[in-house]
Amino acid sequence: MNKIKTYKDRKVVWVDYNELLDGKMPEGNWICLATSSQAKPDSDKFNRFTRDSIKNGILEFKGHGKFGELLHDWFDETMVIMETIENHSELNVITTWHNNESLANTFWQCFFATCLPETTDYDNLKLICTDLDGKNRREELANYLNLFEQAWLPNDRR
Q: Which domain holds residue 65?
């Protein structure tokens, strides 16, 4: 995990997707922004990621890029299976998809347009960012944060 910086009291961290698959994810109180546009993600790996992230207290999942809606759907499908077939207690993870929005816009929404439960510990909220295609976007996100600090608002263009 590579901390980028803290913005709006949210610790922003870049994590390689393979590290997340290896179980290197935060425990409790986190939002995930996952982007994927180059190749259709592996559904079995993403199912494992979804289950591990739920086990580790994810609060919200934002799927971005060409496959953002697919990621959102897979996440929701896994939650439904866990609740209805596996008798898991009700899951309270909000999921959204952002296929036709820029990464900057979706990233901005992680600070200003989230749907978090009442039990959220806002003093210890983390934003975990990853790219399922293996691209390191740490510097790009750091640049967006610098722009956000200057009151820049992204547009919806890719």
A: 2-149
Question: At 56, which CATH number?
Answer: 3.90.190
- What are the CB-based long-range contacts (under 8 Å, 24+) for 68-76? 68/35, 68/36, 68/97, 68/98, 68/99, 69/97, 69/99, 70/40, 70/41, 71/34, 71/36, 71/41, 71/46, 71/97, 71/132, 72/96, 72/97, 73/97, 74/43, 74/46, 74/47, 74/50, 75/46, 75/50
157 in a structural domain? no
pLDDT digits (tens, 9 = 90+) for 24-62: 999 999 999 999 999 999 999 999 999 999 999 999 999
- Assigned domain for 155 exists: no
User: Considering the domain boundaries, does residue 73 fall inside one?
Assistant: yes
Which amino acid, residue 58?
I
pTM (predicted TM-score):
0.94
Q: Which two tokens stand for residue 50?
A: 């979804």
Most confident of 110-114, 118-122, 140-144: 140-144
User: Lowest-pLDDT range, 32-41, 122-131, 148-157?
Assistant: 148-157
Which amino acid is located at 130 in the chain? T
Residue 48 lies in a domain: yes
